[in-house]
Amino acid sequence: xxxxxxxxxxxxxxxxxxxxxxxxxxxxxxxxxxxxxxxxxxxxxxxxxxxxxxxxxxxxxxxxxxxxxxxxxxxxxxxxxxxxxxxxxxxxxxxxxxxxxxxxxxxxxxxxxxxxxxxxxxxxxxxxxxxxxxxxxxxxxxxxxxxxxxxxxxxxxxxxxxxxxxxxxxxxxxxxxxxxxxxxxxxxxxxxxxxxxxxxxxxxxxxxxxxxxxxxxxxxxxxxxxxxxxxxxxxxxxxxxxxxxxxxxxxxxxxxxxxxxxxxxxxxxxxxxxxxxxxxxxxxxxxxxxx
Length: 291
Prior knowledge:
The chain is an alpha/beta fold. Helices cover about 45% and strands about 15% of the residues.
């Protein structure tokens, strides 16, 4: 049976294939894409399914289907989330409750950080407001484009908690201004697309709003999808490894990686296509379920 991208869609997430090897994932929970526990679990499961079930995805664009908002963050009324009521029959001591909370938080982190484990780049196309969890979700994407109407906030401090799903782990490594990152994290202050570009959080600010930033992100995804999927998967893995290790450690890791990957047929195909002035045709990257 042929692969049908729409089969990956669920109640609040739309998936289509605008170009060959490129998927467009759209968040679509009215009115503001607030994330309930069921929503973020579906999000994490989606990227697992793309990696395991889609035969040849080489790039994904993540955006919102809503006109004025990327996401308002957590659903503060979710009975399974932060608003869940205390169980009057639960007489567990604090240490046991902490163990239960730990398991829940780790599951949440894993669902949101799923894009980093994917063997293909994920490009965030952000417009409107991206609050709280919106920073967590986009921080672990490979590339971030923002529409000029986008605004951001590390909002968790305003509900009495430290951001714990990824913002504080990724942001200091992503941006070039640690002082400003701390200022935004400590205050919950809203910052604009131009602020995000200036601090290095987004690579481009696109004039316009949703339609324009999605179009730009899809064009980038189409370019990436034209390259060797093996080369792109390896590049993603090596860049991520470099972030978390010393230069010497990364060079050693790269040497081991390349000693296997240099045997690929993709190099011959890329050279032949260049010399023949034609578009290269690369084989499917079938098995690379986790990076």
